Each structure stands twice: as C-alpha cells, then as structure tokens.
Give the backbone structure.
Amino acid sequence: MKYYPIEKNREFIDRDYEMERLVSIMSQPGPHIIVVHGRRRVGKTELLEQVFYTRQLLKFEGRDHISPEEQRQFVMQQLAQYAEQPLLTKIAVTNWVDVLVNIAEVTKTGPFTLYFEEVQWLANYEDDFISALKYVWDNYFRHNKELILILCGSSPAFMINHVVKSSALYNRSQHEMPLREFNLIESKAMLHQRSNSEVLDAYLTLGGMPEYLKRLRNPNSIYINLLNESFLPGAFFLHEYERIFTSSLADNKYYKKIIDCLSQLKFATRKELSAKLKIRSGGMLTSLLNDLEICGFIEKYSPYNKPENSLLTRYCIADAYLHYYFKFLKPLTKQIEQGHFINHLSSGINMSHFHQWLGYAFERFCRKYERQIATLLGFSGIKYQAGSFFSRQIEKISPGFQIDLLFDRDDKVISICEIKYSQNKISTSVIDEFSEKVSLLPNPKNKTIQKILITNQQNNDHLKSRAYFDRIISLDDFFNPHIW
C-alpha cells in the first residue's frame, strides 16, 4: 500500500486551538468523521496534512466541472494507485456506494485517515455522495475502530447545509470544524519582522487568509509586494476573485450579482437588493443571502438596539479581499492585463485614496473584533449588546450620522467608540465631531456614557492631555496576544 506523501512544513504557523482539537480526536477511540469547512485560501489542506501526516493517509480530491461519472472514476484511479492494484480502474462503478465500498475493502484495519477534499465537487453539489457515505459508514467503515474519515470543502454553504445538517450523518461520531482566517497575532507570525503598522495594513487590505499573506512576505515593503501581486498582467490578486467563487459556490449567476451590487453601494437593505436585482424578496433571495453570509462574503447588521429582521437591517461585503478587489483592481482590469502599470506600479493605487479606504477597512475591523475591544476595555465578562447605531430620524437632522461601534452594557454604561485611522496624529477636532454624536444618541435609561477613541496611531499624548476620552485604544493594543 502506498500513502499520500506529506512532508513536515517547518514554516507552518500553528493554529493552536484547531490543532489541539484534531490531535485530541485522533487520540480518542474511533472511528470518527471530521467535517472541515472554510473559504478557499484559508489553509484547510495545510492544517489537515500537518496534523495527520504521521498516519496512513489516503487523499481523494474532487475536481471541478466534470461529470459525476468522471468524478467516481477519478477516485477509483486514485484508489488503484494507493492500493497498487491497477485492476481497480477496470471495475464498473455506477454509483458512490460502489466506490466507497471499494475504499472500505482496502482500509479494513489499521490507523487509516480517509481524506475527501473539495466534497462539494465530489458530490456535484447534490446529496447522493453523502447518502452513499451513510450506508457505507454504517456497514463497512465504522468497523475499523482506528479509522478517521475527513470531509473537507471550500463551500461552507454546501458543507453546512448538505453535510453538517444532513440527517444521513447525524450522530455518527461526527466532529465539525469551521476554519477561519488567521487572527492578527497569527498574521504577524506569518509576516515576521514586520512592524505592527505594516501588519495591520496588510490585514485591513486582504484579511487573514494565509495564502494572501504569504504573497506579501518578500523582502520589499508590504505595499510594494501588494502592487507586484496586483498590477502586473496575470497578477494573483487580479484573478483571485473568479477562483474563490469557483470553489465556494455553485454556478448561480445571482451570487455574483449580489456581490457586484453591494460593491457599488456601501450597504443595501433586503428591499433595495430585491429591487436592483429584480428578485422577489422571498425564499430564493433568502437562500442566496444566507449562502453568501455562511461563506463569509457578506454580512448583515442592524442597529444594536433592533432585531435582526428589522427593516433597517443592512447587507454589506464582509470579505477584506473583495473590498480591495472591487475598489482598486476590477476598474483597472483591462489596463492591468495590457501592461499599463509594468514600469510604474505605484500609479495603480493613489496613495491618498488608499489611506482613506484603509480608514473604512479599520472601521470594519473594529466592528468585527468587538469582543477583543471589550476585553481591552475590561468589561468582556459583562453582558452587553454591541454594534453600530444609525437612525433614519437622526440622519434627517445630521446627514450621514452613524456611530460605528458602541457597547450597551448591563452594568449601566454605554461605551461609545470613535474609530479613526490616520497616517498622522489624530487632530483634536475629533472631540467636536464625537461630542455631536454623543449629544444625538438616545439614552432613555440615562446610562453613564464612556467615551472611547480607537486609532491605528501609537502616540496620542496630545489627545490624552485634553482628558476628553475615557480610554484610547492604540495600535499596539491590538497586538496583545491575550485578547485573541
């Protein structure tokens, strides 16, 4: 028997929680089914291979845009190579039960790990594969007490709706593991020897996808590496948009239409999306939005004091790379491919526009990691509601009014956050801007107001001397490993 060859990656950035959990599962009496899902480029394959490389691993990969018959035959070819039995390729397999029974026959005993990669493609986005797996698991696989079966996919929507929630695998030694992007500390470990400022800018621009960060590791500055990977013909980040949709979602034109629509707007309500896309605001739109949200491409948010189904609920793009792509790359696709920027890459992004855009990205970052901010402020153990505040009534008085982040706490305090990203020291004019917002914020329970400034700047002595803000969270605070 031959096994899938894996070498130990000495540069692998440990995901401590996930690795500990997988090792724990591996050490428990089996058999086990592990379901791993996460967006393309998040590092699923690397994690699984680095954890299970010491076991007898057989990896079967799904392929995009081939028929179910071709998928099954391809898996049989892989099995024949592992088992060193060429005749396995001659067996007529008319369904997935036939394929999986053949795999079970060569893995009856021993510490085997069966690793099915890109399950959404193996299954052709249908339920036949999972139904067949239920039968073969119950009658064959589970009899090998040392067996670990991994189902891994880059379509979180499919993996959750058709695998995790499938009644076929219910209560069958199943462990679910959603894999998310690197946090800021893990990203800094990948971008070693970079300043906190550079790491934050990289994270705001591309998020914590390991493959994206790897592209920024050359000795040049983060900014120059970003330009090299964006504004040359065939550049990685220029074409990544199509690749992430290919692996994450089924072929439905409305997924991209929703993303395109949101890229042109800062946000949109469900009603606005329905009107723009000419889709009835019913089950189909709900399903599309849910899938995109599960994949991490979009998010919905309401005023912190309103329910999720409020008419004020807004949808916006959540993925950092998508924000970057639509702002700076998509409008210049033709010029990039024609080589217009080869000799002057820096003209691809206007620096002042880039810094302004990073300001919006910093606001999104702070809203996303409100738990870490609550920890820094010392009230993470207190029950609270967190989110943005916006009101149609107040917007009539003060157009554009919005509080980016506030915490309505059970200890009778409201912590209101002003979020400022700047290349220079924050001006004291921020005090006047913030004071107006505080004066307009409804406070019916007359709670104590705590005023917070969150900034990417480090030295804020001139603001501290004014003693207006109760707390100032600065750049280095976000790199405190204890909050992550």
